[in-house]
RING-type E3 ubiquitin transferase
Amino acid sequence: MRFLSLVGNSFGCSASGERLVSAARDGDLQEAKALLDYNPRLARYSTFGVRNSPLHYSAAQGHHEIVSLLLESGVDINLRNYRGQTALMQACQYGHWEVVQTLILFKANIHRADYLNGGTALHLAALNGHSRCIRLLLADHIPSIPNLCNILKNRSRSDETVSEFDEGPADGGVTALHMAALNGHVEAVHLLLDLGASVSQITVEDGTTIDLIGAGSTPLHYAACGGNAQCCQLLIAKGSSLTTENANGWTPLMVARSWHRDWLEEVLSQRPVDQPRLSPSPFLCLPLRSLVDIARECGWRSSDMASACLDPCVVCLERKCTVAAEGCFHEFCTHCALYLCSTNSTSTASHGPPGSIACPLCRHGIVSFIKLASTRPISKELGRTSLSLPFCTCSTEAQESGSLETPFCKPDFHSPLGSSFRSLSCQGFPSVKLSPGLCMGAPDTSPCLVPRSIDGSLRNRLVRCSSRSSLRRSTSQSEGKRWLCSFNQSVGTGSSCL
């Protein structure tokens, strides 16, 4: 009897999980919120076969509010599908920078590689030329200091490892710069070069990767194959060699000829006499790291409205000011400051080093943000569980007792911006008592739900009708139990209805 109940309830959980997947894919925030309020463990549901979770679907479609809702429900932020991809990878693949920003603030792991070719979220962002996603992925690795560009430039001249964010190339030694150069994404190539990506990194022969250009190729070889002249010029200006030969004995010029990129003949033939001076990438953003640290500590989605604070943010006029720009000391809320840093695509400022963003009030170059004295850290507590999805605990025994006790577990300490969402220790919530009729999906009409404003005769008729309907339900349930008992006895004695 209990086995049949568990099987039936597992189908119910599967149906609710599919509803949550549909809500996450379609961007239905209210539906997703209602389902997670009903059962927070539904966030761990994954589809059959491809094993995409609701977090994968919402990230791939760019629904950042549902992504935040799922993360606050305790889902593992680094869940993988059958290809080994995380939600961060799928958001970077399709260029949803708001989702990437949310995942980075929740400390998603940017070093995870997929199962197919060892590519990370940075590789996917560079492959598709999403410069805003690249900037957000590397926010923790680019310090908010004024002389960052000079430090990276000096390291590149001394042939040191300038790529502090290098987590290892993909299969075949392919780096994010290789992918951006091959596909002709000029802005992504420019940003990666300004952030210290190596122009001398070569691919390797691993025996599995199909490399039509050849092992030992530099990003310039890949740019020559892609055929974008601007990418080639950027790499040459950053010191890429024109005479490096790969395993096939090809120089970048020979690669361009083999792929019929005739317009690159002049660019790859010889290095220009007057080396052009490159301006900083418009997607370089120095104050992003300082702001990300503040947002993780103190939150970034405060609901304080303008009427509740004396000095609201001058940008949105809805939230109280939590951060100030270092230098001009103009105050903003964390949400608006994050939006300013994430969407900025110009490096021009009245006063400030390369990579600073212009203050929207005085055009002063902002290098970093500081936390205001009135800004307090957020509470380190999460009200939902991160445990895996189990069967429902509904059973006939619980229905006979008249109530259903559903224990949940709550971690003693949990950071809502943590990356693993693992519970340290569990303590039980107070038991939640549910009606058995609600669990079985039957309507439950009780006398206490009848409005008191109606007259006495009508109220008595409603009470009698509800009592007769409850009597019929109890009679049908007892008959069903007797039928199941007789069925179990016939199976146990080996009798046959035939």
Q: What stands out?
A: Strands lie at 323-325, 331-332, 357-358, 365-366, 369-371, 404-405, 409-411, 426-428, 433-434. Residues 1-12, 159-164, 381-459, 461-498 have pLDDT under 50 and may be disordered.
